[in-house]
Design a protein that fits this description.
Rieske Iron-sulfur Protein, three-stranded antiparallel beta sheet, mainly beta, four-stranded antiparallel beta sheet, 0% helix, binds FE2/S2 (inorganic) cluster, 119 residues
Length: 119
């Protein structure tokens, strides 16, 4: 976990909500879905200069409040128009109650980015 940066306490991200952080000048949305899993995706909507963390968490998607595009929290893909380009996803780990993030953006649609709270 050498490339991982400690971002914030996991408890800062409430169930079904998103928190905006900026790491290396890159805005990132940290999102906890209704199941409690935490994800990190690019915070800027690919349809316009809108912060996705101001939008709505629904299941495993984050919806842009401006025009309603939904982005997959798992892959970053735009699931509904008008946005059609994906946002990056970021690998995170939850450790000792904190969120750690690898700031390297990924567009590989990996399906293993979900992180459950440690027991
Ligand atoms: S700015 Fe996000 S859908 Fe239009």
């Amino acid at each position: 976990m050498s490339d991982m940066i400690r971002v914030c306490p996991a408890s800062d991200i409430a169930l079904g909500s998103a928190v905006r952080v900026v790491i290396d000048d890159v805005p990132i949305a940290l999102v906890r879905d209704s199941a409690g899993d935490v994800y990190a995706i690019g915070d800027t909507c690919t349809h316009g200069d809108i912060s996705l963390s101001e939008g709505f968490v629904e299941d495993d998607t984050l919806e842009c409040w401006a025009h309603g595009s939904k982005f997959s929290l798992k892959t970053g893909q735009a699931l509904t128009l008008p946005a059609f380009e994906p946002v990056p996803v970021f690998t995170i780990e939850l450790k000792d109650g904190d969120v750690y993030l690898d700031p390297t953006p990924r567009f590989d649609y990996a399906d293993s980015l979900t992180n459950k709270e440690e027991a």
